[in-house]
Amino acid sequence: MEPVGLYIHVPFCRKKCKYCDFFSIPSFKFITPYLEAVKKEISLYSSKVKNVDTIYFGGGTPSVLGVKNIEIIMNEILKNFTLSDKPEISLEANPDDISKEFIHGISQLGISRVVLGIQSFDDAKLSFLGRDYSSSKVRDALEILKGNFIGSCCLDMIYGTVFDNWKFWEKELNNALSYYPAHISCYELTIHTKTLFWKLSKENLKVDDNTFRRVYLNTSRYLSDMGYTHYEVSNYAFGIENICRHNMKYWKRLPYIGIGPSAHSFMGKERWWNISSLKKYIKILPSGELPIQAREALEPSQEQMEFLALGLRTKDGVSSSVLSLNEYSFKRLQILEKKGYINLENGKILPTPLGYLVSDSLPIEILG
Predict the structure, then answer these.
(1) Rg of the chain, C-alpha, whole Å
(2) Which of 82, 85, 76 lies closest to 112 in space, CA to CA?
(3) The predicted structure's pLDDT at residue 203
(4) 246 and 327 in contact (C-beta within 8 Å)?
(5) 8 Å CB contact between 206 and 230
(6) What is each CA distance from 93 to 34, 212, 262, 284, in whole angstroms?
């Protein structure tokens, strides 16, 4: 059986950020029953999944669990699954949680990637985003990682805010590059419903579309010149060996299992997702029932659209052989190539940086 990726959703945070629409809870009250439920859910999948080659602790803020609680989850994973020889094990963390002791502890557990959610090096921008730490705390955390972690240091940053003209954002990138991260994720500020930003005036939160376009294309060019591979819409790796193998499972439609409230899973032609309620999640699992909210099996036409929608987010693109393209679609491809959105090479549809910018609309442009 093909190895699967394992995603562990840790919903706990110290505070809900103004832009966050992920399922998270600004409280640590239910950590102990959550851990018991996670252990039970992992054990329920042991009959369906044997081999695991990537593990990703996402959130929320997984680092708030501390080393001992992360170890509880890792021990349950090792008890129920066989890990590949060189598993990729990622942990999202906030600067507040980084210490020499923490880094030593998670290293002992086999964590190979720390994904540090710094978001910015600027105090005013951090305050605007609702982050509780200062830029000096960001730098302290990066220095600790640089001096004590033998795995990959990966940075998550946000841009597209009202602060982020190219001059400002270039300074942010230069600050990031000074720590030689193996991986940088640059996420556009998106104003989602039910977030604190949504409740505020939508004006004066983001840069205008023309500025964002310029900043996005400049970022791709700039980081590429610095040796980073722009391998996905928002992601850059310093060498292909630092591409996040776990996240690539999502874009390539490879199997993964999601553990925890609101976590998503995909195997074969079916995907399913868990309930987005911690209390219900904790209540259901002792009965031996998986906490699944819904399932879906894609029809062939839906699969076509998904192949394009996911594949055109990555540098590997999509093989035209997996698509049922008619004459109209081939003509559309040629037009899109002339406009600079894609390249057609060796039977593949490959997005350009300009194509990344409109990746959500490209499948409709191609298939009609």
Answers:
(1) 21
(2) 85
(3) 65
(4) no
(5) no
(6) 19, 27, 19, 28
